[in-house]
């Protein structure tokens, strides 16, 4: 518990995490609001349209929580104060994941709420399990993506490199894979952010997993990355 | 107490530290000297569990650093004053650090006051001068009221008042029975601060001794003598087997202690105007001992 | 020679340098001392024409810096060793500086050799340690073989061998008849290096003169005496009106007397001496005495609890 408080102090005593959180909420809720103003036929799914962009911002925040520690040398101070490195990094991961998850929920329900306010006539009630998953599931995806971002940060240690990986993989690489004839379509469901998307939007006929299976797969990937990061950090010179 | 036993560190094919053993005892300031690249910082990092030794180990009161339950309460260290997030305030930096080892939050304001940073406690550390950053680093070292303190080049960036202050601080901490281990390149400063010296070169131990032993072993002892009866004194000295060099009215005498010279002068009824034992400087002694262990030689 | 005449620099309502006048003579190393925030760096920047004085002027051999025909051949300066592009090699950094002031390219290798960087001349400066950067900065200062040299904290980051090297180096430059002005916080180092001192505090001149005079004027000279007949000698000295203090180790510290006087007293009452050493005050004591009230961050007295 104590280590969680340490990481909470660290995260909230600089400005950039606040900017990232406000940015993520502004992008998602702002987009949903514009959508609702422009169209009367807005759906629950459509209000969540900017989830990936918000997710990017939160992942940047999460990875910076680690890479800035390497950049400014505070990781050494951290390991000096808490030589059990695994504990220190798990605490950081937990705090970041909780904050990311909270931002995800606020972004999702905020988007829905803003759309409801601006377009009271639209069919925006959460009537099906799929609707609930599309909105409330955001927090889970954000939290797990936060874990991945922390793990990448620990492995890469440099802000520019970590941010590039976290932006390029979901936005470019995963989509380009789909262009490979035959093979692309088979591989694509096994790419992390495609799986996360499948969980939120629901799976197509013939998908290799159910929506909750997709989330479980995403969680396993996050856990594997985190495990690798913890092992590396423990062995490496600080 | 810090015990270093057979400590070694290799990076690929280069050996930074090899088979290094020494003990840093409490109640005194121990200076850690060596040319650039001698392995001082690496050794300090291994003592603090930041780097993993390739061989050997370092113990703090018998326990490896990584096994200490509340390390900051046992060991305080200032390795690099710039290891602070530039957008975090001095106070917030100490606040999270205090929390890691369950130190009471009130301790933060105490150490800020002790290093003279209370007025800028809420300013971002990124805007600090090197001297202020150094004071913040010293504050974090003192935070846990530790028995063992490590400082790497602590006077870096401090002004004369700050230098005198930290010298007094380190001596005061040692007097309270704490173990104080300081690395520095400033030998004239170290000769005023340290009681004991550990000197390394190219990753190996060159010597461990008290400062006065270190200087005495590596430099020559002479005595500067002035007298209105120089010639009579000179004869007596030469008769006793001393080596005497005359420099105007001053004699530089080797081979006899100042007490022996004084007795001799009294026996011959010679008036003395100066009887001044010349101690070599720490710098001279250091240069003799480390010759050959230097990274960049200059023409 | 460097002459500052009524030099003043204001930033808004803060006065960094306040009507400062001093002269730095050639042929000797002059130390430039002052607490943090005293205005040393600002003064050095004004000498080099980087900052414009609000009032007053500073002349180098009679001319303001901006009017020098070949500034790098007249004045060499090391202000901040990190003013180097990290991806440029040491040699290329010096090459552009040489080209900029019309100096022959061969001079680059000469100065690299002079500072001991020949073996790393083609490595990128960004990978240099602080000590190596410092040497590169010094090489840059020497490039134009200037008559006037300014160094700001030159021993920063150097190891003991480097510190000894630069001390001798600066003294050699002065012996060649050059003007050498060095700012530093390391008083024990300055006491060994500088013959003259300029001390400022809160932007104003506190003292200017030779190092020996400055120390002598601000501290008390004493004589340390060790003798098997301490009580006897102590009484005799006290009787003569000198102030005598007994130390726990049995030695005496006499103030108000020269060692000659103490020696004469000892001889006249047949006291055997084991030591008779004149003690000079340190530059640090003198500095603290002089600058007492112009310090920026004062730390609280005691050590840890």
TrEMBL record, chain A:
Keywords: Membrane, Transmembrane, Transmembrane helix
Record-annotated membrane-spanning stretches: 18-37, 49-68, 89-114, 134-156, 163-181, 214-233
Protein name: ABC transporter permease
UniProt organism field: Kutzneria albida DSM 43870
Taxonomy of the source species: Bacteria, Bacillati, Actinomycetota, Actinomycetes, Pseudonocardiales
From TrEMBL, chain B:
Gene3D superfamilies: P-loop containing nucleotide triphosphate hydrolases
Keyword terms, alphabetized: ATP-binding, Nucleotide-binding, Transport
MF annotations from Gene Ontology: ATP binding; ATP hydrolysis activity
InterPro entries linked to this entry: AAA+_ATPase, ABC_transporter-like_ATP-bd, ABC_transporter-like_CS, P-loop_NTPase
Lineage top rank: taxon: Bacteria
KW Signal (keyword) present: no
Pfam families: ABC_tran
Start and end residues of each ABC transporter domain: 2-227
Lyase keyword on record: no
Family: Belongs to the ABC transporter superfamily.
Protein name: ABC transporter domain-containing protein
Organism: Kutzneria albida DSM 43870
UniProtKB/TrEMBL annotation, chain C:
Domain ABC transporter: 2-227
InterPro entries: AAA+_ATPase (IPR003593), ABC_transporter-like_ATP-bd (IPR003439), ABC_transporter-like_CS (IPR017871), P-loop_NTPase (IPR027417)
GO molecular-function terms, A-Z: ATP binding; ATP hydrolysis activity
Swiss-Prot/TrEMBL keywords: ATP-binding, Nucleotide-binding, Transport
PROSITE patterns per UniProt: ABC_TRANSPORTER_1, ABC_TRANSPORTER_2
Family affiliation: Belongs to the ABC transporter superfamily.
Protein name, entry field: ABC transporter domain-containing protein
Organism for this UniProt entry: Kutzneria albida DSM 43870
